[in-house]
Structures are given as structure tokens and as C-alpha cells.
Design a protein that fits this description.
Elements lengths: L5 E6 L7 H16 L2 E4 L4 H5 L4 E3 L32 H10 L4 E6 L1 H14 L3 E5 L15 H22 L1 E7 L6 H9 L4 E3 L7 H13 L6 E6 L21 H12 L5 E6 L11 H19 L5 E6 L2 E6 H7 L9 H8 L11
Parallel strand pairs: 1-2, 1-4, 4-5, 5-10, 6-8, 6-9, 7-8
Antiparallel strand pairs: 2-3, 10-11
Helix pairs in contact: 1-9, 4-10, 5-6, 7-8
Length: 358
């Protein structure tokens, strides 16, 4: 008879910095505190389908006595963010049983967690969720794994582009991730000194954007500017390409660049940069390492206490457990057009869209 609890862990959806730090914390706490066996499920639910598991131990994670996971980006377990997972429910149930798992910890964004929650309900699994996403759009938590590092990455890019923009009197359009939520654009834009921040939640116009850049030049003598635009920002109705351009085939960053060039009668020198997957990579920040470690420890404790269908969350400076169903019902969490950061941006003279429409 099996006497040792067997805990599975997987990473699902797009990668982000801090995933390995979560794995490290789960393995350390589950092994040292509870004496459990921990296995990694490779490539998310694909590992369940293929009935594969990777034994994870404290010594196995060390490299000549050095613990690399705290500072390593990506995920050692691999991840997937495509495929019709729910078409293989019976096979996934069988894979879970074949791997002899007593409980599962899943690290993912709201999309991945929604799928895993359906599998939990179907198989009556003991399941605890850990939120991660560079979009910061998981509800009921103030922090998620990966967001802080992504903000720092974008801010670093904005710092570099600002020097080039000022040297050549250019307007730099920087397209960042965020298909439905503009948290990354808003946070990095404020921290990176942007002059314009455009995001899905707040309507804007080419006319007003162009007027703002003209005011910077004519009133304040600024001959360069930084425009941060989330990839999911809607094409403004006064765009000349409004009817013919459809995302994602039409990159919003380049569209904005073309429109601003036209509205200035091509007097503004404009360049567009798409940061793309650079935002997902890199070494996790100190804050992401801290959040990842706290979340990993809390998830193991919830398993130990017999809880299931919960997500660990950061609220008021503490890690708490919230019902996963409630999280999914309120996700994705969008930027409130009237929140404090939006008003702060406006008070700094940043154009973030139209007051009346917002």
C-alpha cells in the first residue's frame, strides 16, 4: 500500500518568469515539511495524456550544490497554450489515475485554470491553482507570478528607446502584450515615462493622440515622444484603416505609427517597435521570486489541509485562498478606466484616452 502522498505539479499556458521559483518552493516545502513525493507533469495536460511524470527532489534540482531554479526564467516542466484539451477528458482522467496522483497543483492564467478546473470537477481531483500571467488579469489577486518582471522588461526597453527618440527627434511607438487587458501597458507606461498609453479598456482617437503630441512639441518644446500601446487596443473609429484592418493580421503598433504620420502630414519621424515574446523571458525580479515562493508554500499547505478548488492569491500584503470558481467568474480582470493609476497618468500629462468615452 502507498503510504507517501504523491503530489503532481504542472505549468500551463504561456511561460513567464518565476515559474521555476514556484516549482522550487513546492518541492522544498512538500518534501521537507510533509515528506511527500513530488512529480512534475511535463507540458501541462499533455503529460497526463501521455502518462508521463518527472520525479522532483531537492537534490535533483541542485547543480553541484547550486540551486538554479530561483533565478531561472521559463519552466523546466515545459508548457503548452494550444490544443483542444477538453476533447480528451476520459484520457486525462485515466492518465491522472495511472500516475497515482493524490493531488495536483496547476500554475496558469485564467484560461488554463478554467480548463484545469473543469477537469478537477470531472475527476474529483484535489486541485490547487497558482496564478501566473504577464497580463495581470486574473481576478481576486493583487499580484500574480510574472507580471512584475514583465513590467521591468518593458520599462528597460522604454528607457533605451527614449535615448534614441531624443537623439533623433522621433516618436517611438512601443507595442506591448495585453490582448484584453491593459495592465502591462499602464504600469510600464507610467514607470517608463511614456507620453501616451493606449489600451483596450479606454477608447481613444487618432486626432486626440496627434493633438497631444503636437502640444508637447509646440507648447513644451518636446521634439520626441514615447507611445505605449497594448496589442489589444481597439482600432479607433477615426482611423483611415478602420474598416479594412483586422487584428491580429494588422499590428496595432504599426497602424498607430502610420496614422500619426498621416495626421502630422508626415512631419513627425515615427518608428514602431513590437516587444513580443521578449516580455515573457528573462530572469525573474526579486518581487516575482518572493510571490512565487509564497504562493508555492501556500499551495502545499492547502493540499495538506485537504482543501481543493482553491487559488492562492495576494491580498492586502498576505497570501490567502480564494474559491477558484469565483476567480474564473470575474476573470479577466480589466483596467478600470477610472482607477487611481489611470487618473495618476492623466495628472502627469499622459494621454490615456478620452475622458467622456471612458
Amino acid at each position: 500500500m502507498k503510504t507517501q502522498k504523491r503530489l503532481g505539479i504542472l505549468t500551463s499556458g504561456g511561460d513567464c518568469p518565476g515559474l521555476n521559483a514556484v516549482i522550487r518552493a513546492v518541492v522544498s516545502h512538500a518534501t521537507l515539511t510533509y515528506g511527500w513525493q513530488v512529480v512534475g507533469i511535463p507540458y501541462a495536460t499533455r503529460g497526463l495524456l501521455e502518462v508521463k511524470a518527472i520525479p522532483l527532489s531537492l537534490h535533483g534540482l541542485d547543480l553541484r550544490g547550486i540551486d538554479p531554479l530561483l533565478s531561472m526564467g521559463g519552466t523546466i516542466l515545459g508548457s503548452i497554450n494550444k490544443g483542444d484539451t477538453l476533447a480528451y477528458v476520459d484520457e486525462l482522467m485515466a492518465g491522472y489515475q495511472a500516475l497515482e496522483l493524490d493531488a495536483l497543483i496547476g500554475i496558469g492564467g485564467d484560461g488554463s485554470l478554467a480548463i484545469l478546473n473543469q477537469l478537477r470537477n470531472k475527476g474529483n481531483w484535489q486541485f490547487i491553482a497558482i496564478p501566473k500571467t504577464i497580463d495581470n488579469d486574473v481576478a481576486l489577486t493583487e499580484r500574480v507570478v510574472g507580471f512584475d518582471t514583465a513590467v521591468n522588461t518593458v520599462v528597460d526597453a522604454l528607457n533605451r528607446l527614449t535615448f534614441t527618440a531624443s537623439s533623433h527627434d522621433r516618436v517611438m511607438i512601443v507595442e506591448v502584450m495585453g490582448r484584453t487587458a491593459g495592465h502591462l501597458a499602464l504600469h510600464s507606461g507610467i514607470a517608463g515615462g511614456a507620453d501616451v498609453i493606449l489600451m483596450p479598456e479606454i477608447p481613444y482617437t487618432i486626432k486626440d493622440t496627434c493633438a497631444h503630441l503636437a502640444e508637447l512639441r509646440d507648447r513644451w518644446g518636446r521634439r520626441f515622444a514615447i507611445v505605449v500601446v497594448a496589442e489589444g487596443a481597439h482600432i479607433p473609429e477615426d482611423s483611415s484603416n478602420y474598416a479594412s484592418c483586422e487584428k491580429p493580421s494588422c499590428g496595432i503598433g504599426q497602424l498607430i505609427a502610420d496614422e500619426l504620420s498621416n495626421c502630422s502630414h508626415k512631419q513627425i519621424d515615427i518608428r514602431a517597435s513590437v516587444l513580443g515574446h521578449i516580455q515573457r523571458g528573462g530572469i525573474p525580479s526579486a518581487l516575482d521570486r518572493l510571490v512565487a515562493t509564497a504562493f508555492g508554500k501556500a499551495a502545499v499547505d492547502l493540499i495538506a489541509s485537504g482543501k481543493t478548488g482553491q487559488m492562492v492569491a495576494w491580498q492586502n500584503g498576505e497570501v490567502v485562498a480564494v474559491p477558484l470558481e469565483a476567480v474564473l467568474a470575474k476573470s479577466p480582470s480589466l483596467v478600470d478606466p477610472h482607477n487611481y493609476l489611470v487618473e495618476t497618468a492623466r495628472s502627469l500629462g499622459i494621454y490615456v484616452g478620452n475622458h467622456a468615452a471612458a
